[in-house]
Every structure is written in C-alpha cells, then in structure tokens.
Task: inverse folding
C-alpha cells in the first residue's frame, strides 16, 4: 500500500478540521475514532509490551498520552502534526537502521501509513488516565570502588628488592626481580649472549640498523668493564636512535601522512609532528612533558618563539585523528578516534566502548566518555580537505603573533586593492563589449577579457599563497560541556556531562576558574605521578621493544580484559624509577640494557621455562619492516641519512580529490623508512608486506607474519636484486681477495666471521657458479649476496 | 617441479655438502603456519566463495526487484521523508520527488518464475539457480562507507575484510596460492581497506590481482636462468638449516624456510592459474572472452573459476573501480554497458561451475553497495540517486536455495516491508554456509573480541537449501 493514497477517514477528518487542526481540535470525534480503530490496537498489541507498565525500554511509555508526551531517552517521540520530526514515525518507517520499531519486524505498510496520518492529524489520544505504575527497574551502576581494585588502577608501589641467592649474577636492580622468580621456579638463566650477538641486538634495538664491521671489531676487542655501557651511550646519542624510537611512538599514535577520509586527502604538514617526535626522543624530552606537549602544547607557557612553535606542532598528535567521509566529515567519529587513541596510548585502556554504553568489563561509564568528549569538542581540529571542501582549514600558523597580524593585514589590504582592480577590469570589459560593432572590436574585447582574467588570477594567487608556515595542529574552541549521545548517535542527545577525567582514575572535574577546553588539565591528570597507569604503560612499552614482549603482554590494554603483568613488582619498580628519574626515557633504556636479564643468549632451557615467562633467555625476534628495508639500503651503501622533510605532494591549489578519484601516491626515497610517505586508505606496499604499523588505529605490537609473498619479494623484487648487486660491488671494492671478502660480508650482515664450514660451503658455491654457470665474478657475488640477504640469520635477531 | 626435486637436481653437481644432504631432504619441521587448513565449526555447505562486487550501486528496481507500479505511476509525485534528502545533491533537496519507470522490461524466468529484467538477460536465464535477496539495506548512502560496510561490516572504522575473516577461520587449501584473492582492475571506493586484514594477522590480507602481465606481485622469476634460482634457493636452504639446527628448531625459523618452498611453488602455480592457454575456444566463447585478452569481467570470471578449482578460499571480483561504474546519477542508460560487461561472464561462470559439479560447494554472491532511488527530483531526470534503504543482492550455489526471492520491498522499491537483510546478516549467512558460526569466529584485539558481524547479524534461515 502506498504512502500516497490517503486514508478516506483521515481525508475526511482533515477536511472537516481544516488546516489549523491542532492538538485540541485533533481530539475531535473523527480523530479519536481514527485512534481507536487504527492506532490503539497496534500500540496495545505491539508496542506496550516494552513501552508500558512492565518495561520502559528507552525510558519510554506508550500506554498513555502522558507517556509519549514526556518522551524517552532520545527526547520527544511524537511532534503532533509533524510526522517527519517524530521519532516514533521514523522508527516504524524502518528507514533508519539505528531506530527501527518494532525491533524484529516492520509493521505492515498500512499500519505505518496510519501512524503517519495519525501524527499529521495531531496525534489525538484520549488515554488521559494515569498509567499503572510499577517500580522502575534498578539501574545497574558501575561500582567504581570495586573497579579500582583491579591491579592496574591500584597506586604504583615501589617494592623492595627481593633477596636472591645468586647475588653475583645480578648486574643491576632489574635482575633482582627476574632472578628471584627464576630461583623460586628452579629455572636457570641462559648463558650470556656473546659479544657480537649483544652488539647486533643493542644496535638494532636502539637504532634499527646493524653495527658496522668496525664497530663490531672495536667492541669485541675492548676489554674495559664499561665497554658495553659506552656502546649503549654511543647508540643513545646517535640521531639514528630517535628515528628508531620515534617510529615506535608513531605506531602507537597511528601516524600517517594522509587523513583517511573517503578521498584520503594528504596532510603536507604531518611530517612536522613526525619530526617533533623523533627530536623529542633524541633530546630525551621527559616523557611527562612529551605527553603534555602532545595534548596541550599550545597552552603551555613557552619562553621563546621556537619553543612555542615546537609545542604547537606537538599537538599534531591530536590533529592526527582519522577523518571520515566527505564534506565536513563525521566529527563525532574523529573525536572518538582521538579518545580511543589517547586512552590506549597513554593509559592502556579502551575507553571508546563507552561511546554507546557503559563499558561491559572495565569501570568506564558513558559519562566518562562524554566527560572527555567535551574537552575535545571544545577544541578546534584542522580540516585536512575533503570532497566538497577540498581546501584545508584551521591549520595553525607558525609565526610570532605580531608578525602574523601584520602579514594577514597586509594581505587583506592587497586583496581589497585587487578587488577594486578586478571590478575596474570587469567594468572596462563590459564597456568594451557594449561598443558598437567595428573591425577592431574583437581585439579590444579580447584584450579587456585577458586583462580581467589576469587580475582574477593574480587575486587567486595572492589569496592562496601561504604567507607563513603552518602546522597541522589543534587550537582552542569555545569551551562547552558535551551532551551524552544516546547509543553513540550524535543526533540523539541526552543530558549534559561536565568535562572531567575518568572516574576510576579520580574523576577530577575541571577547576571552577578554568576557561579553556580542559586539554591542559587533562594533560596534567594523565601525567600526574599519582596516576597509576601512565608510567606503567610506558615502561611496559619500553620493555616490550627490548625484550620482544611486554611484562604486560597486551600493551594497549591494562584493563580487566588484558593480560596481567608477568612480574607485577618489576613493573611497579620500573614505573617508580622512571618517575623518580624525571621521566627520562634514555635512563630507562640504560637500566634495561645494562641488566643481566637483557644480555642473555636466546637459547634457553625449554623445559624449565617453555614460554619464557620468567625471562630466562632472550626472545628471538624478526626484524620489522623498517629495519629490513633500512638495513638492505645501509649494507648496500645506499641509505641516505638526511632527515626527511615535506613530501612532494601536489600543490594544495590543485586539490580536488574525491572518493571516485582518491589521492594516491608512492614517493620512492632512499632515506630511512620512518620518513616514507604513508597513507591511510592504502598501506605502503613494502610496509604492508612485512607487517608495518596500522595507520588507522594504534599499533601496540607489530605482527611478524611469515608469508610466501615475503619470500617472493626476497626472490624476485628488483629492490632486493639491486641491493644484492650493490652489496657485492661494495664488498669487492673493500676486500679484493675472496676469502677476506666473504668474511667482510659476514661481518656486515651478521656481525660475525664465517665458520670454516661456511667458508667451505660458500667457496664451493662460488666455484660452482664460475665453473658450471660461467658467471663473471660480479654476478657470482651478487648471487651469493642474494643468498646472504635472504637468510634467516639476516632477518632474525638473537 | 617442487623444491625437493630442485634440490635433488643439485645433488649431481655436488654443490651441496654431503653432511647437509640428509637435512635438506628431511621433512620440514611442523611449522606454526597460520594459513594451514582449519576445521570449520560445523559441516559446511560451501567450501569457497566467489564474491562479485558491482561498484557504484546497481539499481534494484531496474534489475531484480520488479515493481509494476513504478511503470504505471511514472512521474507521479512522491513526498520523501526528510532523512532521505541527504542522498541528494544540495540543489536537489526538494521533498517532492517523481517516480521514474524502469528502463528495462521485466519477465518471469525459468521454472521458478522469478521476475528479472532485460538488463541481465543471461543471468536471468539462470533464475532457477539464483536466490534473490530483495530486502538488503545498508547503514550509509555514501559509496566509500557503504562499500566498506558490505566488505568489512563497518561503515566507518577500518576492520578486517570478510575474505580475511574467512581465511583466518578456515586457512588455505592450496599452499601455493593465497587464500584470499581480489581481482580488481582499478582502485575501488575506500581503496585497499576492502581487502585489508586490519588487526588479523597480515597473511590473511587479500592479494590484489590487477589484470595484466604480473597478476601477483613478484611472481615472475627475475633471474633469467631458472637453474641459478634453484642454486640460490638450495644454498639459502642449506645455510638456513645450519642456522636452525643451532637454534633448537625454532618454528618461526622453520616456517620461513618453508615459505621459500611455497614461494617457489607459487612461481609456477600462480602463473599456471592465470594462464588461459589451456582453456579451449569454446570456453573462451562461452565466457565471451577474446583469446589473449585480460580485459573485462569475462577474464575475471574465468580466472575465478580456475582459482576456485585450485582451492583458493575466497575470490572477489570487482567489476570496475571508484569511477566509470554503476553510479548512474545522470542517466540510467549507463547501466547498459556495465551490465553487458558482466552479464554473460557471470552466467557462464554459474553454468561452468555447475557443469563441473562445483556450484554445489561454491557460494557465488553478487553484491553492490546500495540500490538506486525509485524516484528522482525532476520529472525528466534520467538518472537515479543512492538508495541504501533497499536494494538487491543475490546468491547462488553453496547451500542456498535456487529460484527463490527473499524479502520484499514496498510497491515502489522504496523501503523494506518484509525480512530486511542488513549486511551483517549477509555476512552471518555467508559464514554459516562455510560452516562458521559468526558469533564464534572472533579475534581478540585492543582488549575485546571482534567479529565480522560486530554485535549483530542473523543467519537467513529461509534461504538455506
């Protein structure tokens, strides 16, 4: 039955009542008759079961006029006279997937039409009697006190060092905790890793690159007791360190160079945040300050202009949130991505479940979510460009304020002048066009048109030429609390929620005198040493990168669904020490790397500690995507150590990407992989092949898949073949004699000399290539280099 | 030739040292292979899926959802709910629209008498194998989101693709080919997110095949001399085994040694799968594929049949990309050439599978991201806009009933009046046919268990054979 065919009775009623039919007139006999015959039976049969005396789903009752007039959790359900504005009509129409009633099966079309007509009619309803009252169901509230008993929410306690039997084994405080557990379990630690293994491990861990043969020699022949400590200091001081550890943070922050909306608009300024992160690690910026700058750098007092600008760039962390769709996007989802990321990155919690409902497992409520949401809805996020709005907006100028004003003013004046000029040119053109026909007219019209176009062009150029550098960063917006969104739907607003921190972590409200968004306060709550999570979560990330697995094996999830720590006392010890050290990341590296535990060999005793839960040995690890690529370039002499800057994106003035024609580019460089352009709608193919970070959501642990496609890459990709040829040439130049050359190859790739059997194997191989295949030496060596680069020993760290 | 024979061929050359020989020929240690075949939750009806995605939004009312009233009420006014107006360009947001008659004649087909239009005459002839789902609906009327939705179950956040879930749930039947392959000539809406494994292990990501000379990346041997590659691989294997022996048979090291053998196998198996030289002229003609051509849906469908034969678990074919597709805002006539591109090949694929006895355990799904409005803003409008409230997909083979239509829209194809099927329900049904319970196929990520169907999804019981 069509919506168009009016019901006879209703047409009649409308005719009788005329256009002014309102609520009172609606309750005419005809209207009431319509209700009784068409609406009441459906309400009684279908709706009242859940929206009546027994249940009040969505806080709504439909068993009385007062019930629907009061509305439900989503507000008014019937707007008399306006079916399109009535949620009840929306629900029965079944157009809106999130609001369909009755939930299991749509009403017959006739019944739907009846409801529409009834609402048009003003929703006449004689049921004025008070509905029977049944006690409301008790609301199951989150018990935050109980929730706080979960280990991760308890305060960090600095534990005493355990007493161990084998005191001589202990190198530093870390070892007390691991050895204690090994002794209690009757497990023996593995022997120490040999020096070459140790150096290769440390160099990859801290810089993502292998040691050079010279570095290997120097360390192996250094008898000083502090030889390894000096290696660690050398590596920590290298700029390569920030490129490595900055990348680990960029994984967590789901860094990308595009925004991820339906057209994947580029973000040409994103690299500034990336470089900020790398620099922060190189500078050993205290981690709490690093957190504050990323959340509220623009609000921190800065002594000098470069510092102020650097801190603005730091908030690129927030701006990095994903964008969605086209036009103005879906701001509530972008904010959800902000909250999702910061709660995982800093607190190891999943807060975003609470967007739609109280968290099912952790003590995090919807109010918590919207308390944070209000902070970010009071923040201006940059617009990256989108289909329909293809120019970026709300980027933050990186220029002293006074200069900014004068530059803006100068341009505004220039544009006014150009506007005048444009008008004059247009008028001149119009005047020429009106001239009577003459042989010269066409030339004169053309000249005038050209002049007018030229002014337009100039005006366009002036308005689009950047006057000063910009940051993809956030700024303050008019502060306001957010309203709760029913079931996460931004169109269904509930009560207002004051901005504040998570209740389970203290629930701090904004101070009364606060006039900002609340980001500054949030940054302080998160970095408050009394917050039990921030330090724990970060020291665990550091442990994970150095040991191959976190003390908490789920580094982004310290909630009840995550894994408990294998060594809770050690985790707390590290967290406490970290805060005491002034949140120094480099001090923490030293503490871990100089421990005996970190320096063990990777061959353990599988019987006593099958899963290495006691850290009796080192975990063997596959190199990650960046380390594989960078090493291949490095050993072939092709790695360009210049720090990366802006990507060669097309000029903003040309942007018109759409979902039909998405932005897509690959920019090949020889710089370190951390500087490669990475998109959101499409993973960089090499990074995708070797389990690179997800650019769409926080990556806490890189997968290490082993696939035939990776092996096909090793066998057939031109990149690998080129590297092998170049490596062979390098080796040949440095070591003209073949036995030496093989030794150099092993030193370069594996930080060790070949064993005699290996020398025999490869010498025989080379002979075979020469004799059977008649390969010239450079090709034979390229073949050998491919074998060495494809080997497991190249790809895995002991 | 597999790796073993390659290694054997090197014996004569005494390249490999005698001590390593026995090691090389020993069975590979049991690897921790995430792609190894896994048993389903219960006995499956389908062993594999061929998913045909028509990009841009195919009009349901011009193809599979017959609405006689739309013919009779052509240019009659229709008042759209305000909510619907989002699907229209800003200048077209008047609430009064006009019904627009379909551009193709409908006929009853086969024994079942299903009404299908002349847009797909050859597919229509397969009516008795088709299970039309005429009550599909989506959460979003934008291409990027809706396309993401039907592929991943989420219209906004990136999630693993359906094919990745299937690969994760069932593993791969053919170690020499990826378990999830996507043949798409162009970048689709939402890009490679459509076949992304996202948080599932990377080996479950779809392998994107672009029709042309190198369908799988790096599948072509770069070394001109095959024997040289053999020698290198044998040398690497020997060296890797030494390394492994001193490291207590670490399964990840062993798995990588094996992956080279698989890759070597793929070098032969994948080009073989893509090589149509062995298909006779009759088959080429049947699919409508000129010999030697790699263009068009005919090539995609014939390759899909070959991949299905070779045990690829989930094969997706996307007919076009993010442009030049079914998005007929301007003129419904644009549907005609797109339909011609796919009609004969799809019909041929169904018949071919059937004739080979494979249709029974191959689920063919024909999908699009949404339908098109039965009405438009102007009386003389020739196109149709996006319509997520109702559209049609169909399935065939693999345990679904043929010759039936499930679900129903109103008299004009505007809205669903019976048995609405959300893409979560479609996904639940596909998994069910593969022997997987969609509520049990989960993966722990970021502190919670995820599934393809999020917290929804109902298996469409009525269509199960």
Result:
């Amino acid at each position: 039955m069509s919506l168009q065919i009016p019901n006879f009775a209703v047409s009649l009623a409308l005719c009788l009542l005329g256009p002014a039919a309102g609520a009172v007139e609606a309750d005419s006999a005809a209207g009431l008759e319509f209700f009784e015959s068409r609406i009441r039976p459906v309400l009684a049969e279908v709706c009242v079961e859940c929206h009546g005396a027994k249940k009040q789903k969505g806080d709504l009752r439909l068993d009385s006029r007062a019930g629907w007039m009061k509305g439900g959790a989503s507000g008014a359900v019937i707007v008399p006279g306006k079916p399109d504005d009535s949620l009840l009509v929306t629900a029965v129409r079944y157009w809106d997937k999130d609001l369909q009633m009755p939930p299991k099966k749509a009403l017959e079309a006739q019944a739907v039409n009846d409801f529409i007509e009834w609402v048009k009619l003003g929703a006449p309803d004689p049921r004025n009697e008070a509905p029977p009252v049944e006690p409301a169901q008790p609301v199951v509230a989150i018990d935050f006190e109980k929730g706080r008993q979960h280990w991760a929410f308890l305060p960090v306690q600095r534990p005493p060092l355990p007493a161990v039997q084998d005191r001589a084994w202990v190198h530093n405080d870390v070892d007390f905790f691991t050895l204690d557990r090994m002794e209690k379990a009757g497990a023996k630690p593995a022997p120490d890793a040999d020096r070459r293994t140790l150096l290769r491990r440390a160099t990859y861990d801290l810089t993502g690159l292998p040691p050079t043969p010279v570095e290997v020699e120097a360390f192996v022949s250094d008898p000083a007791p502090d030889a390894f400590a000096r290696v660690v200091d050398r590596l920590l001081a290298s700029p390569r360190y920030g490129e490595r550890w900055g990348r680990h943070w960029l994984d967590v922050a789901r860094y990308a160079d595009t925004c991820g909306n339906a057209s994947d608009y580029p973000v040409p300024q994103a690299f500034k945040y990336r470089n900020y992160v790398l620099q922060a690690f190189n500078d050993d910026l205290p981690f709490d300050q690093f957190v504050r700058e990323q959340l509220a750098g623009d609000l921190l007092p800065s002594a000098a202009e470069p510092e102020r600008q650097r801190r603005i760039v730091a908030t690129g962390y927030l701006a990095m949130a994903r964008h969605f769709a086209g036009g103005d996007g879906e701001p509530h989802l972008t904010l959800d991505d902000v909250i999702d990321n910061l709660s995982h990155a800093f607190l190891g919690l999943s807060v975003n479940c609470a967007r739609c409902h109280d968290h099912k497992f952790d003590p995090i409520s919807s109010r918590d979510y919207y308390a944070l949401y209000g902070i970010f809805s009071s923040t201006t996020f940059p617009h990256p460009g989108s289909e329909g709005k293809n120019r970026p907006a709300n980027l933050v100028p990186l220029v002293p304020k006074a200069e900014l004003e004068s530059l803006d003013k100068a341009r505004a004046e220039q544009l006014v002048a150009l506007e005048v000029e444009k008008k004059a040119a247009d008028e001149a053109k119009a005047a020429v066009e009106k001239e009577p026909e003459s042989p010269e007219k066409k030339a004169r019209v053309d000249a005038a048109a050209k002049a007018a176009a030229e002014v337009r062009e100039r005006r366009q150029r002036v308005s689009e030429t950047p006057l000063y550098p910009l940051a993809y960063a956030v700024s303050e917006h008019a502060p306001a609390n957010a309203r709760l969104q029913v079931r996460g739907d931004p169109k269904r607003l509930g009560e207002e929620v004051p901005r504040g921190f998570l209740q389970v972590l203290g629930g701090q409200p904004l101070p009364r005198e606060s006039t900002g968004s609340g980001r500054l306060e949030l940054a302080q709550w998160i970095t408050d040493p009394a917050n039990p999570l921030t330090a724990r979560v970060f020291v665990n990330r550091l442990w994970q990168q150095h040991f191959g697995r976190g003390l908490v094996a789920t580094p982004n999830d310290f909630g009840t669904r995550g894994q408990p720590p294998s060594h809770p006392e050690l985790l707390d010890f590290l967290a406490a020490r970290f805060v005491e050290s002034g949140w120094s990341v480099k001090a923490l590296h030293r503490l871990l790397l100089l421990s005996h535990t970190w320096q063990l060999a990777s061959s353990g005793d599988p019987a006593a500690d099958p899963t290495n839960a006691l850290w009796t040995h080192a975990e063997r690890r596959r190199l990650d995507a960046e380390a594989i690529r960078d090493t291949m370039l490095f050993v072939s002499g092709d790695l360009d150590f210049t720090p990366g800057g802006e990507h060669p994106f097309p000029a903003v003035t040309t942007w018109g990407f759409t979902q039909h024609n998405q932005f897509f580019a690959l920019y090949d460089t020889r710089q370190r992989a951390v500087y490669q352009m990475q998109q959101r709608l499409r993973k960089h193919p090499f990074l995708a092949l070797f389990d690179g970070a997800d650019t769409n959501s926080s990556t806490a642990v890189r997968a290490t898949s082993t696939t035939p496609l990776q092996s096909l890459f090793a066998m057939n990709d031109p990149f690998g073949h080129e590297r092998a040829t170049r490596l062979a040439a390098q080796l040949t130049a440095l070591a003209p004699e073949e036995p030496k050359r093989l030794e150099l190859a092993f030193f370069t790739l594996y930080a060790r000399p070949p064993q005699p059997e290996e020398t025999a194997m490869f010498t025989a191989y080379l002979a075979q290539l020469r004799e059977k295949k008649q390969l010239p030496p450079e090709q034979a060596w390229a073949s050998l280099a491919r074998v060495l680069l494809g080997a497991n020993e190249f790809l895995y760290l002991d | 030739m597999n790796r073993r024979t390659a290694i054997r061929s090197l014996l004569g050359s005494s390249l490999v040292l005698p001590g390593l020989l026995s090691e090389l020929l020993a069975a590979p240690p049991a690897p921790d292979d995430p792609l190894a075949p896994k048993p389903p939750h219960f006995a499956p009806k389908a062993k594999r899926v061929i998913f045909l995605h028509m990009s841009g939004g195919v009009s349901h009312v011009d193809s599979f959802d017959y609405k006689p009233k739309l013919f009779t009420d052509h240019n009659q006014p229709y008042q759209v709910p305000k909510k619907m107006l989002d699907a229209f360009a800003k200048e077209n947001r008047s609430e009064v629209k006009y019904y627009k008659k379909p551009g193709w004649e409908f006929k009853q087909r086969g024994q079942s008498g299903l009404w299908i239009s002349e847009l797909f005459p050859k597919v229509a002839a397969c009516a008795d194998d088709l299970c039309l789902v005429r009550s599909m609906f989506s959460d979003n009327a934008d291409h990027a989101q809706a396309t993401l939705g039907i592929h991943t179950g989420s219209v906004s956040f990136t999630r693993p693709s359906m094919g990745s879930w299937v690969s994760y749930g069932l593993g791969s039947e053919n170690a020499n080919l990826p378990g999830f392959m996507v043949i798409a000539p162009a970048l689709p809406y939402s890009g490679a997110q459509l076949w992304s494994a996202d948080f599932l292990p990377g080996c479950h990501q779809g392998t994107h095949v672009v029709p042309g000379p190198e369908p799988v990346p790096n599948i072509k041997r770069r070394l001109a001399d095959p024997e040289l590659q053999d020698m290198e691989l044998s040398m690497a294997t020997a060296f890797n085994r030494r390394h492994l022996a001193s490291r207590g048979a670490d399964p990840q090291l062993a798995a990588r040694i094996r992956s080279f053998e698989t890759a070597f196998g793929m070098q032969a198996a994948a080009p073989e799968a893509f090589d149509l030289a062995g298909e006779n002229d009759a088959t080429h003609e049947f699919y409508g594929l000129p010999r030697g051509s790699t263009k068009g849906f005919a090539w995609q469908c014939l390759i899909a049949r070959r991949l299905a034969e070779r045990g690829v678990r989930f094969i997706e074919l996307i007919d076009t990309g993010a442009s030049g597709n079914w998005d007929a805002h301007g003129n419904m006539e644009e549907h005609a050439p797109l339909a011609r591109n796919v009609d004969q090949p799809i019909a041929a694929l169904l018949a071919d599978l059937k004739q080979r006895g494979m249709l029974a355990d191959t689920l063919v799904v024909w999908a699009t991201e949404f339908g098109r409005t039965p009405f438009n803003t102007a009386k003389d409008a020739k196109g149709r806009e996006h319509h997520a409230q109702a559209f049609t997909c169909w399935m065939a083979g693999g345990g679904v009933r043929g010759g039936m239509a499930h679900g129903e829209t109103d008299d004009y194809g505007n809205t669903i009046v019976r048995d609405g099927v959300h893409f979560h329900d479609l996904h639940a049904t596909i998994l069910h046919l593969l022997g997987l319970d969609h509520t049990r196929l989960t993966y722990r990520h970021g502190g919670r268990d995820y599934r393809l169907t999020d917290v929804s999804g109902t298996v469409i019981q009525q269509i199960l054979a």
In short: Chain B has a mean pLDDT of 88. The radius of gyration of chain B is 24 Å. Chain B touches chain A through 95 residues (CB under 8 Å).
